[in-house]
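#lab-general

N.A. 3:47 PM
ok so I finally got the sequence cleaned up, no stray characters, all 115 residues accounted for. can someone with queue access submit it? mine expired

B.Y. 3:52 PM
send it over

N.A. 3:53 PM
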Amino acid sequence: MVSPKHIQIAALSFSFVIFSIFGFGGCELSLNHDPATSVTVVISGIDSDESRQTVKSKLEEMTDGAGHMMSTRVSGSTMTPTVSPVSDVDAFVKKIDFGTINKMDGRNIEVDYVP
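B.Y. 4:20 PM
back already:
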């Protein structure tokens, strides 16, 4: 029978091996968006969780390819998702059908949510 202490030692050993591979081997594992391929959309007036989830799903569909990344902040009725990869910002903006675009500054877009 395996004791809990042996399980802890095995888990720590596995963690060390993974850290060694990615941390010391020259490979970097990052959870940060690449500014050159990401877009930040500040969406005002989005109050419900259901609406936020609908917009998130739409934004996922608007990224390039199947492998995408999204991080989202919510403060009151404002949701600020950053999505990537997006190679063509103008094509991305044309797909926004969940609100009115107020401002666009490079890869930063401000939208008033319209249900």
